[in-house]
Amino acid sequence: MKAISTERYGDPEVLTYTDLPDPKVAPDSVLIRVRAAGVNPVDWKALAGYLDPMLNVHFPLIPGWDVAGVVEAVGVDVPEYEVGDEVIGYVRKDDLQHGTYAELVAAPVRTLARKPASLSWQQAAGLPLAGLTAYQAADRVGAEAGETALVHAAAGGVGSLGVQILVARGLRVIGTASERNHDFLRSLGAEPVTYGDGLADRVRALAPDGVDVALDFVGGGVVDVSQELLKDRGRVASIADGEVKEKGGHLVWVRPDSDRLTALGALADAGKLTVAVDAVYPLSEAPEALRRSMAGRARGKIVLEVS
């Protein structure tokens, strides 16, 4: 199979487009013919070696955890899927080696759900990691209908899905973004505010009594700003502030979850959630896609088109 891989840690330039052996299929896994693979910031962080302290890493390393594709073979103990089924997955395993930047991926069924019919392959590939991150963060803070939520980096890949999940749950959503993304946030159902100095005052102008929950998808001290605005300082979740637990909030490291991934697909097919695609690259141009991700200005998801 064709794949993107590296023999060492480094920046995107260490990646090569090459031939590698087809993956073996474990008893509880399926083999997926990849149609598209989502690009996430964790991909270039893994490539740089940042995950080495917590995961065993083996080379050659194929990056990527997001996938959308068609089941090509099933393991000996897989009643859930058949050859030809269209699936999506957040394919994070215990070790880091066989990622989704490839023509074929072997994925445990616990990481998969059926592809939402309403989403294109590119949109579907951008849903699993970002959607589950937002969904699990909303769960962690106990976001409920009738409450007001503050979402930081609301126009990004995770944030734009978080906004839609919260709106679908019946929350009022205030989202931070640059001016160029304010109309985009309004289209998702959020009230936009510009990030940066004076943010707390701008949020208070919209919500004088403060907010009920806050989701930090960017880092850079916004947990502190959130806690100035929260009625309960503990109802903040972050994916980027390593000190949030010491501050009384919740740190979220997204987990594979078939049930919640299925729920995200149901939201999409009900017309309550879509995936904004910022850019699509062919698999061979994965280094360029990662550089775009590293720039931090994507509106929605960056995706690799595989086959």
Concise overview:
The protein is an alpha/beta fold and 307 residues long. It has helices spanning 41-47, 121-125, 128-140, 157-168, 182-188, 199-206, 222-229, 258-269, 286-295, and strands at 2-5, 16-19, 29-39, 56-62, 66-74, 86-90, 95-98, 104-108, 112-114, 148-152, 172-177, 191-194, 213-216, 236-238, 250-251, 277-282, 301-305. Helix 3 (128-140) crosses helix 4 (157-168) and helix 6 (199-206) packs parallel to helix 7.
What would you say this structure looks like, in words?
- The chain is α/β, with parallel strands linked by helices and 307 residues long.
- The chain has 2 domains: 2-127 and 275-305, Medium-chain alcohol dehydrogenases, catalytic domain (Quinone Oxidoreductase, Chain A, domain 1, Alpha-Beta Complex); 130-251, 3-Layer(aba) Sandwich (Rossmann fold), CATH 3.40.50.
- 27% of the residues lie in helices and 28% in strands.
- It contains 9 helices and 17 strands.
- The chain has helices at 41-47, 121-125, 128-140, 157-168, 182-188, 199-206, 222-229, 258-269, 286-295, and strands at 2-5, 16-19, 29-39, 56-62, 66-74, 86-90, 95-98, 104-108, 112-114, 148-152, 172-177, 191-194, 213-216, 236-238, 250-251, 277-282, 301-305.
- The strands form 4 sheets. Strands 3, 5, 6, 8, 9, 16 and 17 form a 7-stranded mixed beta sheet that branches. It has a 6-stranded parallel beta sheet with strand order 12-11-10-13-14-15, with helices on both faces. Strands 1-2 form a two-stranded antiparallel sheet.
- Strand 11 (172-177), helix 5 (182-188) and strand 12 form a beta-alpha-beta unit.
- Helix 3 crosses helix 4 and helix 6 runs parallel beside helix 7 (222-229).
- The longest helix is centred in the middle third of the chain and has 13 residues, at 128-140.
- It is globular.
- It starts with a strand and ends with a strand.
- The model has no long low-confidence stretch (mean pLDDT 97).
